Amino acid sequence: MKHLRATDRLRETAKTWKRGKATDMAGTHDTTLEESMEAMVSGGVFRGEPMDRHTSFGVGGIADYFVVPANPEETVRLVDFLAALGVSFLPLGKGTNLLVLDGGYRGVIISLKNLQGLQIRQEDDDETLLVRGEAGLPITRLIDCALKDSLEGLEFLAGIPGTLGGALRMNAGAWGSEIKDVVRSLTLVVPGRGAEVIPRSRLAFAYRKLELPEGSVIAAAELAVRRGDRDVIEGRIREIMDKRKKRHPLEYRSAGSVFKNPPGGVPAGRLIEEAGLKGLVVGDAMISELHGNFIVNRGKAKAAHIIELIEEVRMRIRDMTGIELETEIVIVGEDL
Ligand SMILES: Cc1cc2nc3c(=O)[nH]c(=O)nc-3n(C[C@H](O)[C@H](O)[C@H](O)COP(=O)(O)OP(=O)(O)OC[C@H]3O[C@@H](n4cnc5c(N)ncnc54)[C@H](O)[C@@H]3O)c2cc1C
Fold this sequence. Notes:
Layout: H1 6-18, H2 25-28, H3 31-40, E1 45-50, E2 62-67, H4 72-85, E3 89-92, E4 98-100, E5 105-111, E6 118-122, E7 128-134, H5 139-148, E8 151-152, H6 164-169, E9 173-174, E10 177-178, E11 183-190, E12 194-199, E13 204-206, E14 209-211, E15 217-227, H7 230-247, H8 268-274, E16 281-282, E17 285-287, E18 295-297, H9 303-321, E19 330-332
Parallel strand pairs: 2-5, 3-5, 4-19
Antiparallel strand pairs: 1-2, 6-7, 7-15, 8-15, 9-10, 11-12, 11-15, 13-14, 16-17, 17-18
The structure holds flavin-adenine dinucleotide.
């Protein structure tokens, strides 16, 4: 009988995953892999986790593993371990810009929800304050902190429902500002290289994206802000939240804007509205009647319904205008 060393057994498991047989693991899971991850992280290792619980769309099949590091050090160990084995993994914030397909995700979802540290420090020039947040910090907490400490410059992020890490990865923005405008540096976990602090000058931001080395995970970031007038800051935040309530279908589950705005100035939402597509329905997925760029889940939508709507919109806009709409939301996983 052939005895495999622990690392060989892990590699065998990784190969099985790559062959797409990970669903077999629901019954005959590999204890070696699971135990290794359990020994590495203290926030939990969950096998067969339904992703509809972790995405704002409320859809998505089962992830083979959903693993929760408790701190950046555990994140580094986990990322190194999975990358060395060639196991697929995906960092997750609040899942508010993410569509997981109905067949689920083959590999490990790394939830950063326990990385919520937040500190503020004064820079040498006295005027700039640096807000250091860990990746899983909800944007709502960042905004609460800005308000409490009268920090000016982050108001545009108010109402964006994700985490700091997700906002950086997506270069989240609204009302003419993007998070790239306030980033000073970020702490990046790169497989095999540990955690590195990368200054803003070396970060390649683009419209709704930040280019990162393959397999890297944002662990934390520093944002540069100024001390401002509390009433002014509060007024701006309130104005933004009011606009969001009026313009966005917040009573439904969604992932925000589905499509990027195409070059040329006409927003994707307007193109969709002008094409008469508002209210279009597939299953329980619907193009919002309020905002053309939102697809909402009316209750029991499946990822397949959302994908069908996306394809329909792209086809009709292409036929009518010649414009090729690109998705802003990140689509991962397998079909059923
Ligand atoms: C009602 C509503 C309104 C919205 N309004 C806006 C808006 O005005 N402007 C805007 O830009 N967006 C908006 N969004 C979209 C979304 O909230 C943002 O893109 C948000 O920044 C995503 O953060 P998240 O933590 O949910 O990321 P997730 O959805 O969890 O992840 C998104 C992507 O980032 C990656 N990722 C997440 N965390 C990390 C990390 N730490 N390191 C590396 N990669 C990571 C994931 O793998 C995935 O590819 C809205 C969404 C909703 C539902």
